Structures are given as structure tokens and as C-alpha cells.
Amino acid sequence: MANLLLILLAAALPSAASAQPSGEDAARIAEIGWVLYAGATAIFVAVAALLALAMFGPATLRRRLSRPALIVGAGITFPVLALTALLVYVLTPSLPARDAASFAARIEVTGELWWWRVRYLDASGGLLFETANEIRIPTGKPVQFLLRSDNVIHSFWIPELGGKLDMIPGRVNRMRALARTSGTFRGHCAEYCGAQHARMLFNVQAVDPAAFDAWVQTQRQPAGAPVSALKPAAEQFMQACAQCHTVRGTAAQGTLGPDLTHVGSRPSLAAGILPNNLGAMGGWIAASQQIKPGNGMPSFEQWPGEDLRAVARYLESLK
């Protein structure tokens, strides 16, 4: 048994060493993990050594190990002191508290069934713009996530940037994040929330502050007018989709589904399960219930192929 435990501990080292936290909070979690891992390893080695001595050591040493004082000290006093020290270390805050004005971005994320509504807010809580299933943050600057749910409990988790935090109906939970390096990080829902829980993903792109500011300015703009070749497709979209979706700058003002104002610039569709290209867009419109059963969008399988491709091209043009 002892040999098996040693093998398991050794096998865990390469995977733990390969983890590279990209966020300040994730680095703190990794540090805590390493301290706890090292402490557990040291205690395991010490207990294994005492066990070996008690079983195979000289008779005089075995008699000493059987004394009540050693049993009380090693079995009660040491665990209490060690666990108390580790508890104090884990619970000691290491990150400073901040007010709303000190954050480079305030991002309200609402867990829907089964996608993510993302709203960027100003320092006073006013809406700047809304997007879906895509989050961008500046590197080197703290941002605040305001986490909500209007249906069931979800859990917001970006492993490379920080820990998990639940999204509870009727409550707003706050999470701080700071990306140390640029890159794209995959986010997940970490609380079972229904049939499509495993297909509720999102991307977080950490970019330099100048690129972030430029992206924010672009996202705040309304959708551009369609070129003449796409106007019939835009009209068909208004007739069939405007009740559920918003495209700022047009008559589409629905709020049940994602805001599609700049959907053509997003990296993925359907909460991270499809690439954002013309074929995937047309397939999602035609067969959303087959691709992601139970989601809130009906399938438009009755549309002819030409109409599907035309509407998909219109949505692709919304950059």
C-alpha cells in the first residue's frame, strides 16, 4: 500500500508541474495547492517512516514508539497544530480589496439555458454594450465579474484565471480577475444546470489594454447597414428572428436570445460548441434542436437552403 501511494504521488508531479496559471487568482490557488501537496507529502513520509520503525526497528525503539505520550503527541497535538497552521495560511487574504472605479472593466455575466449573456458596464453600472459567450479583458489590469442567474444555479469557472463562483438566482456574486499574460482561455459552467450543461462554454480573450479599448469601441457601435445583396436576407431575419434577438441599429430588439449585433466577429457559436463560419451558422439555424436539444431556439428546417445560406451570410457580415 505504501509503495502504491508513493507511485501515485510521483505520478501527480508532472501534471501539477505542467500547470501554468495565467491569472493572479489562479496563481494563488496553485500556490496553495503546492503548499498543501508538500505538507501532505512530508506528513505521509514521516508516518510511513514511523510505521516502518514500529514494525521492523530494534526492540528498544519499538518500545519507545509505543509510549502514550508519543501517541497523544503524534495522533492529536501534531494534527491539530498542523491543520490549524494550514487553515490560517489558506484563509489569509492575499489580494487587496478594490472599489468599482479601480477596475479596468466591469462585466455582468448571466447564466442562461444554456449560454452566457455578457454585459459590459461603466463604473456607475450603466450598460455600455451586450454580447454573448465571449469575454475580452485587458492584460495586467484587474476586472470585476458580476455573476447572476435568472433560472437555475450555474457556476462560473475560468480555470487558468481563477476559481469557481456560483451564479445563484436572486443574488449577485462578485469575482475579481487579473490576467498576467495574453491568450485565449476556455470557460465552463461547473455546476450541473440541465441537459446541455456540458455544452455551456465560453471564451475569454486577454489582450493588451490598447487592443481591449479598441474592441470596446467597436462593440459599442451599432450594426452596419447590409449591402444591397444582403438586404432580402436582413428582412427575412427581421421577420423570423427579431422577436428574440437584438441587432443594435435595426428594428430587432428581442431580449430572449443572445444579442447578435456583432455576431460575425465572435470566435464560436452556440456557447462554444461550433466554430463561427458560414456552414456552422446555417447548420445551427436549420437544426439547433438537433445540435443542442432543449435550447431556447427553434430549428428552421423548413427554410430552403438558399434562404439559410443568405441569412447566415447576413449574420456573418455583422462584424
Chain-wise SSE layout:
Elements lengths: L1 H17 L5 H33 L2 H7 L2 H24 L13 E7 L4 E6 L5 E6 L1 E5 L3 E8 L4 E4 L6 E4 L5 E6 L4 E7 L11 E7 L1 H11 L11 H11 L26 E2 L4 E2 L2 H14 L13 H12 L3
Parallel strand pairs: 1-5, 4-10
Antiparallel strand pairs: 1-2, 2-3, 5-8, 6-7, 6-9, 9-10, 11-12
Description:
The structure is a single chain. The protein is of the alpha+beta class and 319 residues long. The protein has eight helices and twelve strands. The chain has helices at residues 2-18, 24-56, 59-65, 68-91, 209-219, 231-241, 278-291, 305-316, and strands at 105-111, 116-121, 127-132, 134-138, 142-149, 154-157, 164-167, 173-178, 183-189, 201-207, 268-269, 274-275. A hairpin with a 6-residue loop joins strand 6 (154-157) and strand 7 (164-167). Helix 2 crosses helix 3 and helix 7 (278-291) packs across helix 8 (305-316). It is elongated and about 95 Å long.
Helix/strand class: alpha+beta
- Average of per-residue pLDDT values: 88
Rg from C-alpha positions?
A: 27 Å
In the predicted model, the low-confidence regions spanning at least 5 consecutive residues are 11-18
- Specify the helix fraction band: 40-55%
Helical stretch tally: 8
Note the quaternary state here.
single chain
The total count of strands amounts to: 12
In short:
The protein is of the alpha+beta class and 319 residues long. It is built from eight helices and twelve strands. Helix 2 packs across helix 3 and helix 7 (278-291) crosses helix 8.
Keywords:
319 residues, alpha+beta, five-stranded mixed β-sheet
